[in-house]
Write a structure and sequence with these properties.
Elements: H1 2-11, H2 28-45, H3 51-75, H4 91-108, H5 123-148, H6 159-216, E1 220-224, E2 230-233, H7 235-241, H8 245-248, H9 259-273, E3 279-286, E4 292-303, E5 309-318, H10 320-342, E6 346-351, E7 356-359, H11 361-367, H12 371-374, H13 379-383, H14 390-402, E8 408-414, E9 420-432, E10 435-445, H15 447-509, H16 516-545, E11 553-554, H17 557-567, H18 569-575, E12 578-581, E13 589-590, H19 592-608, E14 617-625, E15 628-635, H20 667-677, E16 682-687, E17 691-699
Parallel strand pairs: 12-14
Antiparallel strand pairs: 1-2, 1-5, 3-4, 4-5, 6-7, 6-10, 8-9, 9-10, 11-13, 14-15, 15-17, 16-17
């Protein structure tokens, strides 16, 4: 290799023929370059970073530059730059050192100088990557052409002309390369400018969009510097504090909120800036109206391009109404829970698998299962065991196949103690988030009611027989009573007739022998026997009312009123009474005989108990009230004391007033019994000293004629 090196240098004319270069001895330059390269290689292989790596890259660059200098020295034909006869570094050694230095620089990476000035897409880096190699190549090529290339005919041309021609040729070549390179750079710059313009437009559009979003959102959006001074304050934030952004920017929270609130907010800011990621929490602040409102706030650190802390961003949403709604919902749910727990019903919530989710206190009390016993267990297997209630399970399976939940349902259950209870249920599907999540059921313990219904069914089964038996007993009693009444009538009337007859005979035959007192006694006997005869007749009438059959037919009251006027014409005239009728008279559906008897007894009662010193006035009316006809007889008599209202219709009831007329005490009892025979009742409205009104409600026929 040394011989080849010498021959190459002699061929290039670098070594005169009379100089014999020294072969086999390392140049000090080579040794130094290799030492620097070795240190740089060691540093790079060991993976050092920072300043040591940068120093290694600088050392590698020095090796490359030194080797390039050696190569240029050969290119310029001056390898003996020491001025001595010995070539300091062989050409091949210089080339190898150049490659070694360039390789080490490349190994150091683009983050180290000198590659940093050629890395990236900046204009400076592009120019460095293009023109530094061109410049170096131009320098080498010019000298090579000048020193080693012989132009045709150059021996006959002046040296200056040859140099000029060589220079022009090199300049032309490199001008062409430079022009093409410059054009490429220009196109690249145009593309870069276009890309930059597009990026700027996109950035502007993004900025406008961001500003629109920030300005139109109802959430308060803001940014602060590390000292807590506002850098951004949107319209929603302005609305909360009641101040414009011009008043806020550059100031901290002490200018917006009370001191205690500002301290809490700023403490939250410092905590958020200390975190690596945004955080969300609730905080309160006083708005422009003085109301304390609740916000759901997201805060996070703002980072600069180099990753350093640049401030804080925040997004606050007013959730005051939501919090109030949540609180109202919690209260409502608490009220519902209390209502469910205190209501006297069983409450059961099941999921879609039929497992118990919730029981109320009544469910625990009736079933005997605690929440711990029941929650998560299959409700049906727990309280409706299939072995005990197979018929209920058959119905369960039918309902399951139909896919429907019955609105109402009754079934037996087995308590924890083994007791059987009957429950009636109201069921409903439970929806969550628009989907069926299970069922809720409200149950009432109807065990006692079921037992009572069974007893009622048992009683109803024997009711017909008992009614028939009772009816037979009543009919027998009525017949016996009728026989007794006639017997009493016969047995009492005969003695009365005898007494009355002998008394009259005594008065005719021995009347002249009787003094005034004797005649008085005779008159009293006659009057008493007559009164006794009337009393017996009325008792017989009262007894007959219980056995006589009744009929219901439309009864025009006009003829009946005329009959009453004829019957009571003399008593009405003697009492100076008036009998008025309120027209028109509605037609009731009644038994005509019983109705006439009722009115006759009421008229007789009104004439008997008239008020002294005042002419009696009787008023009869009959008016429709829905599907009934109210028949009423009013008088202006002495009235009935309130103490007698409840028992005035009982037999033999008389007023206590000593000056009041005394009847038989049977008339109103007969009227009341007759009304009951027509499924009605006589009601009384009376004021003592002002009069009385007796009324009864009778059915109205479909077509009434009055």
């Amino acid at each position: 290799l040394g011989a080849i090196q010498v021959d190459l240098e002699r061929l290039l004319g670098l070594v005169p023929e009379d100089v014999e270069p020294t072969i086999g001895r390392m140049s000090p330059i080579t040794a130094g370059a290799l030492s620097v390269a070795a240190l740089a290689a060691f540093a790079l292989v060991s993976g050092v970073q920072g300043r040591p790596r940068a120093l290694a890259a600088i050392g590698a660059t020095a090796v490359a530059v030194g080797a390039l200098t050696i190569a240029l020295a050969y290119a310029y034909g001056t390898p003996l730059f020491y001025g001595g006869p010995t070539i300091p570094v062989a050409l091949l050694t210089g080339v190898l050192l150049l490659l070694l230095g360039v390789g080490l620089v490349a190994a150091a990476g683009p983050g180290c100088w000198p590659l940093t000035m050629m890395a990236g897409d900046s204009l400076e880096a592009r120019l460095h990557r293009v023109f530094l190699p061109l410049l170096l190549l131009a320098m080498v090529a010019t000298e090579i052409v000048d020193n080693y290339v012989d132009l045709p005919g150059s021996a006959t041309l002046p040296t200056a002309l040859v140099d000029a021609i060589a220079t022009v040729v090199v300049f032309a070549v490199f001008s062409t390369l430079a022009a093409r390179t410059t054009a490429a750079i220009g196109r690249s710059l145009d593309r870069a400018n276009a890309d930059r313009k597009m990026a700027e437009d996109a950035l502007g559009e993004s900025r406008r969009l961001l500003e629109s979003v920030i300005g139109s959102t109802t959430d308060a959006i803001y940014a602060k510097d590390p000292q807590g001074r506002y850098l951004l304050f949107n319209a929603a934030a302005e609305a909360i504090v009641g101040k414009g952004s011009r008043e806020v920017l550059g100031k901290d929270d002490t200018s917006l909120f009370p001191a205690d609130e500002a301290a809490v907010v700023m403490e939250g800011d410092r905590a958020a800036m200390a975190m690596a990621a945004p955080t969300t929490y609730e905080e309160t602040a006083t708005d422009s109206t003085g109301e304390v409102r609740t916000f759901l706030t997201t805060k996070g650190p703002l980072r600069g391009a180099d990753g350093s802390l640049a401030g804080l961003f925040g997004i606050a949403r007013d959730i005051t109404e939501r919090k109030a709604a949540e609180e109202a919902l919690r209260e409502a749910m608490g009220f519902a829970d209390d209502l469910i727990d205190t209501a006297n019903v069983v409450f059961v919530e099941l999921n879609l698998r039929g497992e118990v989710v919730r029981l109320n206190s009544d469910a625990v009390r009736i079933t005997g299962y605690s929440l711990a016993d029941a929650v998560g267990k299959d409700w049906f297997e727990l309280v409706v065991p299939k072995a005990r209630f197979p018929e209920v399970w058959t119905e369960f399976e039918r309902i399951t196949r139909s896919g429907e939940v019955p609105r109402t349902w009754e079934n037996p259950i087995q308590t924890k103690a083994g007791e059987e209870r009957q429950l009636s249920w109201q069921n409903s599907l439970l929806h969550r988030n628009g989907e069926v999540a299970g069922t809720i059921s409200f149950g009432i313990d109807i065990t006692e009611r079921k037992a009572a219904e069974a007893q009622i069914r048992e009683l109803n089964e024997t009711l017909e027989a008992r009614v028939a038996e009772r009816t037979a007993e009543l009919e027998s009693a009525n017949r016996e009573l009728e026989r007794f009444s006639y017997s009493v009538s016969h047995d009492l009337r005969a003695p009365l007739r005898a007494i009355s007859g002998f008394t009259e005979l005594l008065a005719r035959r021995y009347g002249d022998a009787l003094d005034e007192k004797g005649h008085h006694y005779v008159d009293r006997i006659v009057d008493s026997t007559a009164w006794m005869q009337v009393l017996i007749e009325e008792l017989l009438d009262y007894a007959r009312l219980g056995g006589a059959a009744t009929r219901a037919e439309p009864v025009p009251l006009g003829p009946l009123v005329a009959s009453l006027r004829d019957t009571f014409a003399m008593p009405i005239e003697e009492a100076g009474a008036t009998f008025e009728v309120v027209e028109p008279l509605a037609v009731p559906l009644a038994d005509p005989v019983l109705l006439e008897r009722i009115l006759a007894n009421l008229v007789e009662n009104a004439l008997l108990y008239r008020r002294p010193g005042a002419p009696a006035r009787l008023t009869l009316s009959a008016r429709h009230h829905g599907g009934t006809v109210t028949v009423a007889l009013a008088d202006n008599g002495i009235g009935i004391p309130a103490a007698f209202h409840d028992r005035i219709f009982e037999p033999f009831t008389r007023l206590n007033a000593t000056d009041a007329p005394q009847g038989t005490g049977i008339g109103l009892a007969i009227a009341s019994k007759a009304a009951r025979r027509m499924s009605s009742e006589i009601t009384l409205v009376s004021v003592e000293g002002e009069g009385s009104t007796f009324s009864m409600d009778l059915p109205a026929p479909d077509r009434a004629d009055s």
